[in-house]
Amino acid sequence: MSTSAAERKKLHGTGKVYWRRLRADISRDRWLYLLLLPGFIYFIVFKYLPMFGIVIAFENYVPFSGVLGSQWVGLKWFQYFFKFPAWINYLTNTLILSLMSLVFYFPAPILLALLLNEMRSLRYKKVLQTMLYVPHFISIVIVVSITFVMFGTSGIVYKLTQQVLGHTIPYMGSPDTFRWMIIGQTIWKETGWGTIIFLAALTNVDTQLYEAAMVDGAGRLRRLWHITLPAIRSTIVLMLILRMGSVLDTGYDHLILMANPLNRSASQTLDVFVYQQGIQQGQFSYASAIGLMKAVVSVTLVVTSNKIAHMLGEQGLY
Amino acid sequence: MAERTLTPKNKKMLESSGPVGQNATLGSRIFDIANYLIVTLIALTTIFPFIYIIGASFATEYEIATRPMFIIPQDVTTAAYQFIFSSNKILRGFGNSLLITVCGTAINLFFTVTMAYALSKSRLRGRNFFLNMVIVSMFFSGGMIPGYIVVANILNLKNTYWSVLLPGAISAYNMMIVKNFFQGIPQELEESASMDGCTDIGVLLRIVLPLSLPVLATFGLFYAVGHWNAYFGAMIYMKTAKEKWPLQVLLRELIILSNGTAGDMNNLDPEFVQPPEQSVKMAVIVVSTVPIMCVYPFLQKYFVKGVMVGALKG
Questions:
Q1: Of B213, B225, B125, which is closest to residue B171 (Cα–Cα)?
Q2: Residue extent(s) of CATH 1.10.3720.10 domains in chain A
Q3: Mean pLDDT, residues B117-137 taken together
Q4: How remote is the C-alpha of B187 from its chain's centroid?
Q5: What is the CATH number of domain B79-313?
Q6: Out of A179, A217, A229, B249, which could bridge B245 as a Cys pair, Cβ 3.0 to 4.6 Å?
Q7: Is B238 on the interface with A (CB under 8 A)?
Q8: What is the pLDDT of residue A56?
Q9: Which residue in B145, B165, B171, B304 has the most chain A C-beta atoms within 10 A of its own C-beta, making it the best mutation to test that interface?
Q10: How many percent of chain A have pLDDT more than 70?
Q11: Please, what is the angle between helix A30-43 and helix B88-119, to 10°?
């Protein structure tokens, strides 16, 4: 696709010839440009305008004056955030949730993919996979709604807990349970679907390796450990790098559904903060500044972890 | 075992059973049984909530409150569904979701196909510039707030259906896949048509689109599921236009905010000041999940393929 400057010169000519050909080409392809127009406008308006809009993080943005007319305040909002004593709570909540997700959710699809890969009956495996993929397509609102119906004060899990333990657990309204509920929902919704990428990597494993290992007398677990797992190592590393980039992203669409005044002390993460300050309170500049800060940290983390992956001899992300 | 050669049948079994051969030892058998049990249990846990909720949506309020755990109710009643289908609010929500899904998908396909077709032509001047513009947008974004400002303050789309239809009109990733597909269509077909006097738009409509129907159906389905499941856009842009709320936003109000633990109680509709009954909540969940379940067989088939393509490329 990419042509060198010399080739391009040969193709398009130079000087006057270049301009004449350019005009002729554009006029020949006028219908193609017309087809391109809606998409082009879309990307300018909904992708590039917001990117340019990040400047409001350094402004005191007032909708009435517009992005260009608002007062420039430099780093005021960043300083403002760090002067606010609770900022550390938002950061800790974000990091704890991310870390829990890394420890409990991240390995889940890998383990399940390994188990699925060991199944002999292809048909039975397909049936199970059909069941496992369902929640991925269900909206997060429905997932949280199901959770409320089952774990809320009139739900069956709530009542069963009461019968079994003799006391109740406020699943939906307590900072102690909040994170576990979030992780649990994520595991339930995405584990099955997450196996696909690892199962795809596993189809590339050379079956001769297994035969050779069997000849050498390696049992199931040994083959799993020495052949299957190394085969998906680079996929795991790749997913881990991507995961590192989102260490400050707890997501907001899931969390704001689960957050309520009772679990406040655990549910206030940076993403929730951006939503509350920006969309709910209308503090656009302040919220954008926090969003921008998060994005900068994310890019740094991806670049760093990619470097580390290279040092460990992995291909990495790029 | 060492001298065993691979007959075709043998080989097939080996491939179909993953990393496992025959001649299972005792340890291997135990491993198998444990594996089957564990995965089956995980799969059952995954679908249990759906089964429970479908069952309970047909049960009486009394049974839900007294029986701890059941799948098939003793007294089957459709009261919850009758309530839903007599409630204007929920019917309107369903209608709005349907409207947003149909119009949104049509808009998605129009924007995706036109742009993908133009970019599939390597003779197009400035093509690399446009392609790079798309690729850069896949890695960087303005974030939640600047996007909100564009839709709400600059374009002034608040409380209109456009606010949920336009912001996601193209998925850059899908567009690139469609573009690659168009590039794979034999050039001769298109050239003969343009020699017969077709413009590029004519070629797209008469030659390319009929050849790409399966691809369009696949991406149409992807987009449609996205629209049906979306709630965030409608929640923030159409906050005060309740008559335009899709089912997902309604569900949030009926089940999540009405739970009493949420702070937004003042947003509750007078019709539902009393939290709806459990069976009604379950029936609403069922009703909003049914459309997804109807297309699920197709979803599974195409989505798995889509992820695989992505995985192989990456």
A1: B225
A2: 77-311
A3: 93
A4: 33
A5: 1.10.3720.10
A6: B249
A7: no
A8: 93
A9: B145
A10: 97
A11: 130
Q: What is the mean pLDDT of residues A216-243?
A: 85
Helix (H) or strand (E) run with residue B3 in it: none
Question: Residue B3 has what pLDDT?
Answer: 40
Q: Where are the domains of chain B?
A: 79-313
The yes/no answer to whether this complex scores an ipTM above 0.90 is no
Look up residue B47 and give its two tokens.
């679908």
- Give the model's pLDDT for residue B14: 47
The mean pLDDT value for A119-142 works out to 92
Structure tokens at B216: 């369009």
Instruction: List the structure tokens of A318.
Output: 């790029």
CATH class of segment(s) A77-311: mainly alpha
Any chain A CB within 8 A of the CB of B232?
Answer: yes
DSSP symbols for A125-179 = HHHHHHHHHGGGGS-HHHHHHHHHHHHSTTSHHHHHHHHHHSS---TTS-HHHHH
Please report the pLDDT score of residue B312 as a whole number.
40
Rounded to whole angstroms, how far apart are CA atoms A50 and A300?
21
pTM of the model: 0.86
Rounded to an integer, what distance in angstroms lies between the CA atom of residue A287 and that of residue A78?
Answer: 10
Local confidence band at A245 (pLDDT 50, 70, 90 cut-offs): confident
Q: Does B37 touch chain A (CB under 8 A)?
A: no
* Helix H or strand E encompassing B304: helix B278-313
